[in-house]
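Illustration 12: ferredoxin--NADP(+) reductase.
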Amino acid sequence: MNMQATTEEFAATLPAGVYGEKVLSVQHYTDRLFRFTMTRPDGFRFRSGEFAMIGLMVDGKPVYRAYSIASPSWAEELEFFSIKVPGGPLTQHLQNIQDGDIVLMRKKPTGTLVLDALTPAKRLYMFSTGTGIAPFASLIREPETYEKFDEVILTHTCREVAELQYGFDLVSEIRNDELLSEVVGDKLTHYATVTREPFERTGRITDLISSGKLFEDLGLPPLNPETDRGMICGSADMLKDTKALLEAAGMDEGANNKPSEFVIERAFVG
Ligand code: A2P
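Figure caption equivalent — predicted structure in C-alpha cell form:
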C-alpha cells in the first residue's frame, strides 16, 4: 500500500467538513492540565483569540468540544491548552493522545475575544482563570495586540502554583524569542495568582480588582473606560463576577459586530 492510498483511505473516514490533523507534541503539566500541538491545515485561517471545535472519533462517532486556539494567527502549528475532566466525553480520551495521533477540527473558527471587538485605548487587560489563559496565549504572541495597545496586562489565577506553569513558560518563550521580544518590548505584564496554596501573590482576581490590590501592585490607576479595555475568559461564575466589576467601572460589553470596551468568552471544558 503506498502513502497516497493510506492518506486517501484516512480522508474517506473523516466526517464531511472536518480536518484530520496530526499531533506533534503533548506536554502534561498536572493531573488536570495538558498542552498539545498539531499540524495546521493548508488554508486554515483564524484571528488570534478565536476558538475551534476540536474532536476525536469515540466508538466510531466524532465527539467535539470548543477549544480556544492558543497559538497566534501567524504560527505554523496549532496549539491547545486543555483540562482533563474525569469521565469528560472528550477530555477523558484527548488526555491520552500521543505524537502522530489524528485530532479532528471543524473548519470554521469563531469567537469574541478578538482585537476587532474592542475600541482603541491605551491599555488591554486580559483576565483569565485556569485554561481560560488559552486565547490570551494566542493574543500575547500577536504583533497586532502591541500595535493597538501600549500596555498589555495578562492576569492568570489558578488554584495551585503548578497550574500557572503554562503561563510562565509562555512568557519566557516570548522573552527568549528574538523577533517576538522586540515586538513585545516591555509592554507585557504577567500577573499570576493562586487561591488554594501560599504563593507570592494570592487571591481571586475579582477580589484583587475590588480591593484595588491589583492596581496597587501594578502601579496603575483603577479601571477607566477612557484608557482601559478588557477581555475575560474563565469559568461561568468568574465571567459573571468579573463582568460585573468592569461594568461597575463604567465599561461596556462589545461584540464582533459592535466593538466596545470589554469582551467575554467561556472557558470550554468537558
Ligand atoms: P477558588 O479557588 O477560590 O475557587 P476552577 O479550577 O474552579 O475553574 O478555578 C480556577 C480559579 O478561578 C481558582 O483560582 C478559583 O478560585 C477561581 N475562581 C472560581 N470562581 C471564581 C469567581 N466567581 N470569580 C473569580 N475567580 C474565581
